[in-house]
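User: Teach me something about this protein's shape.
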Amino acid sequence: MSCFKGGMAAVGLTWAECKEMCPSDISPACHNAIDTVTISGPKQSVENFVAELKEKKIFAKEVACNQVAFHSHYMMEIAPSLRKCLENIIHNPPKQRSSRWISTSVPENRWNTPLALTSSPDYHVNNLCSPVLFQDALQHIPSNALTIELAPHCLLLAIIKRSLSTDCVHLNLMKRGTHDHVTYFYNNLGKKEFLLDRK
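Assistant: First, the predicted structure itself:
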């Protein structure tokens, strides 16, 4: 069993700056916003790079990842096991993806390839091992959209609000520190319905 310890961090760099400045063993993992990227790599290397950026007065903060370097080539080690598990869950042939499904793990110029056209085990393995092109995908969201974040915490809410049109309405299902998630969801939903009625 591998003893590799991974790390991740949010850094205040553009995607291009991040690619240029990252040490060779660290990968840009998530293109969150124009000036915000999550990096992924060996824990010690990430810690060192975060310290370097802070010395240069560049925002850098480690993020909790359970010592797993998600969305990087380091995940290729578990790819075969993950694929085998997913093959027991996802039926063959896999379901065709809807045209409304905007992929963040496959670049737009490859959206018509077999990998991107179905919700297959290979697609989801690729998602874990590849960078998240979130900012690129947001460019396809309509200016009057209602966005819903399906997550245990509204991690991307600030980024979504900053990246999308002010005419968009955003809904998150849960928030860290909230004990009654059902009430939180209904209260949040009521506020959003009020905003939509006003529009």
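Now, about its shape. The beta strands are 6-11, 27-33, 36-42, 60-63, 146-149, 169-172. The helical segments are 15-21, 43-55, 79-87, 114-117, 121-129, 134-138, 157-163, 181-198. If you'd like, I can walk through any region in more detail.
User: That's plenty for now, thanks!
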